[in-house]
Amino acid sequence: MAPRLGVVEDNLARHLALLDEARGGGADLVVFPELGLTGYLIQDLAGEVAMRRDDPRLLELAARAEGSAGERPMSAVVSFVEESDDHRLFISAALLEGGAVRFVHRKLFLPTYGLFDERRFFAAGDSLRTVESRLGVRLGLAVCEDFWHLSVPETLAFDGAHVLINVSSSPGRDLAAIHEVGLGTAASWQTLIRTYAQLTTSYVVFCNRVGVDETISFWGGSEVISPSGDAVFSAPLFDEGLHFVDVDAADVRRERVSLPLLRDERPELHLRELRRILAERTGMTIDQASERGPGVEPADGETRRRAKARENR
Amino acid sequence: MNPQAGRPTDIPADGSNGLFELPAELAIDTDVARRVIVGFIRNQLRQAGFDRALVGLSGGIDSALVAYLVADAIKPELLLCVSMPYRTSSPESVEHARMVVDRLGCSSEVVDISPMVDGYFGADGAAGAGGLDAAPLRRGNFMARQRMCVLYDRSVTWGGLVVGTGNKTESLIGYTTLFGDSACAFNPIGDLYKSQVRQLAAAVGVPEEIIRKAPSADLWPGQTDESEAGFTYPALDRLLFWMIDKRRDDEELLAMGFDVATVDRVKRMVAVSEFKRQVPPVAKLGPRTTGVDYLYPRRRPGSARR
Question: Is A114 left (phi over 0), alpha (psi -120 to 50) or beta?
């Protein structure tokens, strides 16, 4: 979908209509893109379009997803600007189930470089958890830039996710003819989500918006990737659409039994080394990672090797 | 693409038929570019509450390409192309502008700016307020600004937005007239280098004659961009691409084979023209200042005309 920038009422109406349409098509889970309720480039409008978790508009969406008596209940992932009790503003994605806001993921990584300026307007989330869905699978929610950090899909997989869901407002750029799909951003994302699906042996659902905010064109291209890293579904670039994709949760089991990458992961090793690295970075050990002055001899072989690596960068 | 927008010519994307030179690193996917630009134009108009647009058609490739793209985005009859020749403008320019209008089937109008320009500088030996002996650059800038005046006046009578036609190359080196040809409501090709403009123009079917001819501001007879600037567009585009988009420093550029004099000169042109690419600064005095700490989208709710 292409949200209208800052026009929450219109976007809400569009969400409700799409939920109805999804129910008609027999959907169990409906995923909407990042900031689908507000548009992306909202800048100082952030405070004006923010909602609390118990905002009646979110509850209206949850109720519509649940449906009335006799209708098939659906789960939905929607994204909005969330205001916390202490008035911080987050870019959030909520799982709506059972007529309620069941779970909220707050975007962890706020790009503030290049064409992005998110940290100026938003607070970063500080927790990463999966959620057990009524659908019988654990879901791991992430928002756009969260997936440009390896730790996010990895942590979600460790935390038991079967399905990783990334909702995005990814601005298209780089039209260099060398890209197979004609858009550098799309090529990068396609590589990322296939890799994550394969390495975590999980389904990856990537939902990216379309439309234009100011100078930025969002490229769509939503995809569902199977636990073996193959695309089960790929939406066209730039086109708006509601797409139905059949996902078999048994594929996750099959893949994990035959390719037990997750079983063989070594989180304890990872954690131990991370602790050491953190200690070094923060100066808690002799082996400090701070930059050495020119001509200063490293203390031992280990640090000498690192200094060499730094020079070679 | 709009069927009335003319038959695309059979030009390979790399320009290998000799129609134009396209450095390999600058080649773009023209289908995606068209898709993005057409969506951009539609959105800019819709978000502002307009159905109509107008383009100042010079007879050159930039404005021809923009006219084709706008005609693709909206119905050609909702596009007004305005030609604004001065009495010394090349007859070829006028002819090429007419060719674009004929092919697109869009609305058009010719406004002769000679009386406006001559009224200021004078004519037939009688000096105006600007003086008969004004240097060509002053006259050229004045003409560009008169055209802006005409376009913005016509934007009211036509009920449409002025679409910009400046490309990335001329913007980066400052080969534009501030508040003249650079003035617009939005610009669909401002992030395309001249070489990419040519590639896209070929892909959307801009007539070959327009693609082939030497680019010129046509501010005085015989003027061409490349003779005035002293380097060719493909060479300049390559340098700007590596310098700006790919962040190569001087040493790296020289190692790539660019000569030091050109690098120095182009860097200076880019730095000197920074002011032309930015909104004028406002002295920070109050608690909240436009562009500093009052940051709203141009197209915020309620900003549309209707």
Answer: left
